[in-house]
Amino acid sequence: MFPRNTLILLAMLSSFVRQPLSAQDDVVISGDVTQVDLTSGMIAVRHEPNQRLKLGSATDTFRVSEPIMLNAIRPGAHIRFSADRINGELAITKIFAD
Questions:
Q1: I need a labelling partner for 14 at 20 to 30 A (CA). Which of 6, 26, 33, 49 fits?
Q2: Taking every pair of C-alpha atoms in the chain, what is the biggest distance, in angstroms?
Q3: What structural domains and CATH numbers belong to the chain?
Q4: Range of lowest pLDDT (21-25, 61-65, 87-91)
Q5: Does residue 18 have a pLDDT over 80?
Q6: How many CB atoms neighbour CB 63 within 10 A?
Q7: What phi, psi does 41 have (nearest 5°)?
């Protein structure tokens, strides 16, 4: 059992720890797949604008965080996906089923 002062200190410190992003914090973008490159692990998507990632309505190339994602995606598919910048590069972190 922790002393009361220790519990209070732990509660205070936990408010300073950065919490992982929840599904609600994900940047979800809709778009149409124009190209899938299995060799490079990249997907080209014509997408809607996204303010957080500073993307206008355009076609951009995204790296996928998990190469297995490439197996389920084909050019012409409409997808909803979560994206971020990883090491300065656009990356798809999740693909959502419709």
A1: 26
A2: 61
A3: 25-96 (2.40.50.320)
A4: 21-25
A5: no
A6: 16
A7: 75, 35
